[in-house]
Every structure is written in structure tokens, then in C-alpha cells.
Amino acid sequence: MIKRDFYLEHVIRSMWNGEIKVITGIRRCGKSVLLFELFYEYLLSHGVQEDEIIKIELDQRRSYQYRNPIALCDYVESIVRRHTDQSF
Fold it and tell me: What is the pLDDT of residue 85?
């Protein structure tokens, strides 16, 4: 695996600025590795619990329904609610 330190640092530096991040690039350039492996490991190593991270691969057949923004929002909200209810 190629380390993508420059891009990882850029994502880390901007993660709390309130803006939505869009990672773009040609096919097979490492976008998924950056997010699903490198950034994921960064979050875990900084105290974020695994069940607090939502990972959805929209190119996978099992996740096609979440290409609909309303279905995606409902799904994310249900996870957040469930996690919030368990915290209290």
C-alpha cells in the first residue's frame, strides 16, 4: 500500500472546519485506501471508537439503496440515534 501522507494530513487538518469534503480522482488512484484504511486507522488511533465510524461503499451492490440521498440520510440518522440512545 502506498502511504498518502500529504493527502491524509490535508484531510486531518481540515476535518473540523465545518465543510463537506469531496475526495476526487481517477479510478484506482487511492481514494478508498485514503478514507477506508488510512483515515480510518487515524481515527481509531486517536480514540474514536469503531462503532462511531460509519463506512458506506456506494459502489457496492449491498449499498446501492444509499445512493438515494433521503435513504442515506435516514440510515445515518438511525445509526446516530441508536448510538446516542446507548450513551445515556
Answer: 81
